[in-house]
Design a protein that fits this description.
The structure holds 2 protein chains of 2 kinds. By secondary structure, chain A is an all-alpha fold. Chain A has a domain at about 25-90. Chain A is built from 4 helices and no strands. In chain A, helix 2 (about 30-40) packs antiparallel against helix 4 (about 60-90). Chain A is flat, with a radius of gyration of 18 Å. Chain A starts with a helix and ends in a 9-residue tail after the last helix. Chain B is an alpha/beta fold. In chain B, about 60% of the residues lie in helices and about 5% in strands. Chain B is built from 17 helices and 6 strands. Chain B has helices at about 5-25, 35-55, 60-80, 85-110, 120-145, 160-180, 185-200, 210-230, 235-260, 265, 290-300, 310-315, 320-330, 350-355, 370-375, 395, 445-464; strands spanning about 305-310, 335-340, 365, 380-385, 415-420, 440-445. In chain B, helix 5 runs parallel beside helix 7 (about 185-200). Chain B is elongated and about 75 Å long. The N and C termini of chain B lie far apart (about 80 Å). Classes of the chains: A mainly alpha, B alpha/beta. At the A-B interface, helix 1, helix 2, helix 3 and helix 4 of A face helix 1, helix 2, helix 3, helix 4 and helix 5 of B.
């Protein structure tokens, strides 16, 4: 079994525990923003896509990489915008939107 | 800068991004700190992207910039959809995320098809299978939510066997590739079969189960990302994927509990759909109906009111009228709160966003347990556009398809008022005995105009 895999597995298991701990404390009010935010964070695959699109290895890699950059970056942009928009709506005093 | 120094800087940048991502979710624990959480996530993302642009190995920036430009052009409008459209936007973004993960996995396979180790190959195969099925499954879910595709479950005889066979085919192809990674012909077949399975997985699921399906696809999308992190040995991908995956998993469990469905039932794509009962015998039962004036008089005379909204309220665009009702009753000293069932709306937490958008203060939005414990001391429970989640048959009638589902106990309030177009059963086709109780007043009409009329009555009374 490759050593890389073991390290990855450790990271995965520990990050999973952190995820459970943190996300269980997320207010139930905010479950929709939670989903759009985790979605935006997940878009960090854009870094892998950029490397593939920019390595100039094969034509196929450049094409797939470019599509992957576009797909994941749209999630980052759209996810952060909509999360911020939704969170702005949650107010205590019910005063008019700014 | 030497390649080695660049590499170290990139790795530290990824570590910083990972830490910021964790803080981002941690700050979502309360509405006061939540926006700081978005900021942390954004900074983490920018750090990761800039560090990658500076990384060694990138020699051609043109296609990256084109990809980023297209992504930005698509992402900005997707960030500005209406709140009622957030569920389909979310499903679409799961689909994009899974697409990106699958494409990168595919590219990794073709980078060197003859030299994958068994271990490396099985990681790639698993990642590409999950990414592909999440891509098409989420597209179908988005289509159903956008009502491009039929909302009702599409089922046929032997469906489970067909779907499971397709999934098995994908897995067998993956295992074959593990032993013979050079059989390049098998790889596109495996991708195709996985894409088909995604369609088969979500097509049979009805609109009422969408909150669970979205959460589950969220979890799959996270898992695909984490697996991609394994393939590329990228820790930041593993961490982001694990966070997203565990978030989707927790939300799926909450949705399952709220619908009294077992987790295995949902994990396998809710194959064993509960069939709605064949309609209770249409015995003669009396229903008491009331006018807006009656309703206004009762609300005015009460000291505590719980409003139970369902997705019907959002469909009728009634939330702003409901806010007016909330305002006027609160001014008159009535304590008004909202009881939000976990599956109200089309995705987890959706109803809270719709109510917050209508400027209802979030401390008035209570979850099911909070509101149920206060229900016996509540004067009026006002149900707007909700049906199954208030059905007392879920507590008492063992033959009911929704028996065992936790509900908001509106029948325990002193008076129940239900705004509804007609007595016809709701989406699930289940009869609701709540409507025939002595303490229940049916307010027949469109939610928006009926609430508007109640508000007008209350305002009229106030002027004298």
């Amino acid at each position: 079994m490759p050593a890389d895999f073991i390290i990855s597995l450790y990271v995965f298991v520990l990050a999973g525990f952190v995820g459970f701990g943190v996300i269980q404390r997320v207010s139930r009010l905010l479950h929709t923003p939670l989903m759009s935010l985790t979605n935006a964070l997940d878009a960090v695959v854009v870094v892998a896509a950029m490397i593939i699109a920019g390595r100039r290895e094969t034509e196929l890699a450049v094409i797939l990489g470019t599509i992957a950059v576009a797909a994941s970056f749209s999630n980052a942009v759209g996810g952060f915008i909509i999360t911020e928009r939704m969170l702005r709506m949650f107010k205590l005093d019910g005063s008019k939107k700014s | 800068m030497s390649p080695n120094a660049a590499h170290i800087i990139t790795e530290f940048a990824y570590l910083a991004a990972s830490v910021l991502f964790i803080f981002s979710l941690k700050w979502l624990s309360s509405p006061e700190t939540a926006r700081r959480g978005v900021r942390a996530g954004e900074i983490g993302m920018v750090i990761a992207i800039l560090a990658t642009l500076a990384a060694t190995g990138i020699i051609e920036y043109r296609w990256i910039l084109i990809g980023l430009a297209i992504g930005g052009a698509v992402g900005v409008p997707l960030g500005f959809v209406k709140t009622t459209a957030v569920p389909q936007r979310t499903a679409l973004s799961h689909s994009f995320g899974a697409l990106a993960a699958a494409l990168i996995g595919i590219s990794e396979y073709y980078a060197n098809p003859l030299h994958h180790t068994k271990f490396g190959m099985i990681e790639i195969a698993l990642e590409v299978i999950i990414g592909s099925l999440t891509f098409t499954g989420s597209l179908i879910a988005a289509g159903k939510l956008q009502e491009i595709l039929p909302q009702r479950p599409i089922t046929y005889r032997g469906q489970n066997i067909v779907s499971l066979s397709v999934l098995s085919a994908a897995v067998i192809l993956g295992i074959t590739l593990m032993f013979r990674p050079g059989l390049t012909i098998l790889f596109p077949i495996m991708v195709g079969v996985s894409l088909v399975f995604g369609v088969l997985l979500v097509t049979p699921i009805g609109g009422a189960d969408m909150p669970t399906v979205i959460s589950l696809l969220n979890s799959y999308a996270g898992l695909a990302d984490a697996l991609l992190g394994f393939v590329l040995s990228s820790k930041v991908l593993i961490i982001a994927g694990a966070l997203d995956g565990s978030s989707g998993f927790i939300l799926s469990v909450i949705m399952c509990k709220a619908m009294n469905r077992s987790f295995t039932n949902v994990l396998f794509g809710a194959f064993g759909q509960v069939k709605a009962g064949a309609g209770a015998a249409a015995e003669e039962r009396t229903v008491r109906s009331a006018t807006p004036e009656d309703a206004a008089d009762i609300l005015k005379a009460s000291s505590s009111v719980v409003i139970v909204p369902g997705y019907g309220m959002a469909v009728a665009q009634a939330q702003h009228k409901v806010r007016e009702l909330y305002d006027i009753l609160t001014r008159q000293g009535v304590n008004v709160t909202f009881g939000v069932h976990p599956v109200a709306g089309r995705m987890p937490g959706h109803m809270n966003v719709l109510l917050a958008e209508a400027d209802i203060p979030y401390d008035k939005l209570l979850d099911m347990d909070q509101v149920n414990s206060d229900m016996p001391q509540t004067d009026v429970a006002l149900v707007i556009g909700a049906n199954d989640v208030t059905n007392p048959a879920a507590r008492t009638d063992t033959s009911s398809p929704i028996y065992g589902m936790p509900i908001i106990d509106v029948d325990k309030a002193r008076i129940v008022m239900v705004i509804k177009r007609s007595l016809s059963p709701g989406f699930a086709g289940i009869d609701n005995p709540l409507y025939y109780m002595d303490k229940t007043l049916m307010l027949f009409g469109d939610a928006k105009s009926f609430v508007g009329e109640i508000v007008r009555e209350l305002q009229g009374g106030h002027q004298f």
